[in-house]
Amino acid sequence: MSQTALIYPSNAAPFEIGTRPIPSPEDDQLLVKVISAALNPSDSLAQRGLLSLLKIFPAVLGTDIAGIVEKTGTKSNGFSVGDKVFFQGYLFDPDQTGFQQYTVVPSDIVSHIPSNLSFDQAASIPLAFVTAFVGLFHSTGMQIAPPFSGPTVTAEDSTILIIGGSSIVGFFTIQLARMAGFKRILTTVAPKHNDTIKALGATHVFDRAAADLEDQIRAVTGNELVYVYDAISSEDTQNFGWKLLSDTKPGTLVVVHLAAQTDASPKKPKESKWLTVYGSSHWYRDISVPIYKAIGKWLEEGIVVPPKTTVIGGLAAVPEGVQRLKEGKVSGEKLIAHPWE
């Protein structure tokens, strides 16, 4: 049996609509009919040949997926045929990605879609949410205790700066910082996003283009800031975040692309860290398995809310959407493709 897929034939080559076999689930996997697949900046990086770990071609991209369980493996637990589910695809195995009509996924890193969410909303969540979670709570990130049982940050002056609050990673990082108990959640955005970002839990929202942005932030943090999450992670934003960290206390800057630190970067306490994090459900089972057990309830109760979504069409619309991401023309929303259209 074959299916329609958006094929990425070789490194930096144009996408092609084609066919490939429908994968069969292994014992611990689910076969899922893909209803909605979200686009991510990582798709743009991969299509430009900038993901060095992507070595299997022809590839299929797409790492945010929502759909319906078609078949269960003999050792998979907790799911039945017909269940509505969402999960993160695995970019390095074309059988486990989203820009096709069927995909497989390990059953331990899948969540049921709560009744108050659509397929499109569910597909907007996995990669960005896991990336935010890893950066804040995993051993490869800030190592804050995760809020599975409630707030874990108790200091009355607890402060975090999130650069790029209207990016989807920033959108979820704000919510998770609120859940963790941070008292002051600072973020930078374009002013048109202010109301949305404040509703998520940001306590201080700054115009990212303000000429005196550093002074505005320092008026709140002084020289005490020890947590910065850069959800944009350009060279400029990384250096800006590092500069704002305390000069006297060990701090952590988390970035989501390759670290831009150089010998010319400002000197900080030697215990300070400049960390690149990867939002992989597949690599970090120690944290992703409990995430997928908890996130359905958080979404159902409105503790976590999904971002705005925009449907761009079927698989044929993905290349144009990826180009929009490459050009920085997407802000405050998630682009969604429907592989059956």
TrEMBL record:
Its transmembrane ranges are 122-139, 159-177
Q: Which Pfam families match?
A: ADH_N, ADH_zinc_N
Task: Cite the InterPro entries for this sequence.
Answer: ADH-like_C, ADH-like_N, ER, GroES-like_sf, NAD(P)-bd_dom_sf, Trans-enoyl_RdTase-like
The source's superkingdom equals Eukaryota
Keywords assigned: Membrane, Transmembrane, Transmembrane helix
A single GO molecular-function term is: oxidoreductase activity, acting on NAD(P)H
Where do the Enoyl reductase (ER) domain residues begin and end? 10-337
Which PANTHER family is this protein grouped with?
Answer: HYPOTHETICAL OXIDOREDUCTASE (EUROFUNG), ZINC-TYPE ALCOHOL DEHYDROGENASE-LIKE PROTEIN C2E1P3.01
Protein name from the UniProt record: Enoyl reductase (ER) domain-containing protein
User: Source species, please?
Assistant: Botryobasidium botryosum (strain FD-172 SS1)
